[in-house]
Design brief:
The protein has 323 residues and is of the alpha/beta class. It has one domain (9-318): NAD(P)-binding Rossmann-like Domain (Rossmann fold), CATH 3.40.50.720. It contains 12 helices and 8 strands. It has helices at residues 9-15, 33-44, 57-69, 85-98, 125-146, 184-188, 193-218, 237-244, 261-264, 266-273, 299-302, 304-318; strands spanning 24-28, 48-53, 74-79, 104-107, 151-156, 224-229, 282-284, 293-294. An 8-stranded mixed sheet has the order 3-2-1-4-5-6-7-8, sandwiched between helices. The chain starts with 8 loop residues before the first helix and ends in a 5-residue tail after the last helix.
Length: 323
């Protein structure tokens, strides 16, 4: 795939971000793609950025690259494996020990269309990585968020949010027994069980956002905002990982329409740093590509039954989250 021009980064930084000097932001999945860009841009705006990734050479090399690209940036690497609840709890404990406040939690990391297998905790690898562990991380860091005068919990969904409603079975200890891997034909057309599981996680990200917003409003908590974003179709490492396990063809004609990782990151960047952002705001391109607009959430994103299934399913997996 040839190099893709970035079209909207400068305009978003100039018109839809603010000075973050003195602020603390945590971002999951920063080794490449949208998370890397978001971490870089938050550091340029002055934030101290916590980089939550699995321990790996990729994590080390991306940290070195961030420090090279933002020489005055403040970065703190925190080991956090979203496929391991104990690792998530340990990461949150480390952050609570080292910081007395958190201003931004960007739940960015995700996997896509992986084979039907369980994590060590017994849950579907996609659901635990994309949804359950981010719910747990938010729960464990919520007291730090409440100490900020303007905290943001930013969840990263995708166009795959659109489709059937949530089903309780995807949230249970059913990893490895959720439909199998599908046929080559299904995977090539973004259909079949792999993509059904991915859809469930991306709709769950939305339901978490609006379930959290409802609870914040019910408790009269106005200094913590719940926000949502989607990247459209962006060329990131996500597609490469999926292609390696037979989930899609990274060189397909479909991917030739993608925008850059920088442009794909701009929805979460606006949610993290736009001074006008309000709780419940949803940022992203109106279609597959484009400027990250403030979007009206589709009805299914706020559907009461979807919100119930998500919150109850997450709590059953990782414990009660009292806002």
């Amino acid at each position: 795939m040839s190099e893709i021009d970035t079209l909207h980064l400068d305009a978003v930084v100039e018109n839809h971000t603010r000075d973050l000097t003195g602020r603390v932001a945590a971002v999951t999945g920063t080794t490449s793609g949208t998370g890397f860009v978001c971490a870089r841009e938050l550091a340029k705006l002055g934030a101290s950025v916590l980089l939550l990734n699995r321990a790996s050479e990729r994590a080390e090399s991306s940290l070195a690259r961030l420090r090279a690209e933002v020489p005055d940036g403040r970065f703190d690497a925190v080991v956090c494996d979203l496929q391991d609840f104990d690792s998530v709890r340990a990461a949150a404990a480390q952050i609570r020990q080292q910081y007395d406040r958190l201003d931004v939690l960007c739940n960015n990391a995700g996997v896509m269309a992986l084979p039907d297998r369980a994590t060590g905790d017994g849950y579907d690898v996609q659901m635990q990585t994309n949804c359950l562990s981010h719910f747990l991380l938010t729960k464990e860091l919520f007291e730090l968020l409440k100490r900020s005068d303007d905290a943001r919990v930013v969840n990263h969904s995708s166009m795959a949010r659109l489709g059937p409603p949530l089903e309780e079975r995807y949230f249970g200890k059913n990893g490895g027994d959720l439909g199998g891997d599908g046929t080559d034909e299904e995977n090539a057309s973004f259909g079949g069980p792999r993509w059904s599981r991915y859809h469930q996680t991306k709709l769950a990200n939305c339901a978490f956002t609006y379930g959290l917003q409802q609870r914040l409003e019910a408790k009269g908590i106005s200094n913590v905002k719940a926000l949502l974003a989607h990247p459209g179709l962006a060329a990131t490492g996500l597609q490469t990982t999926t292609a390696q396990t037979g989930g899609m063809d990274v060189n397909s004609g479909f991917m030739s329409q993608a925008q850059s990782a920088e442009d794909g990151a701009l929805g979460i960047l606006r949610a993290c740093a736009d001074p006008e952002a309000a709780s419940g705001d949803f940022f992203g391109p109106q279609g597959w590509t484009g400027f990250p607009e403030r979007l009206p959430p589709e009805d299914l994103l706020r559907d009461p039954e979807n919100l119930r299934i998500n919150w109850q399913g997450c709590e059953a997996a990782v414990g009660t989250f009292e806002v």
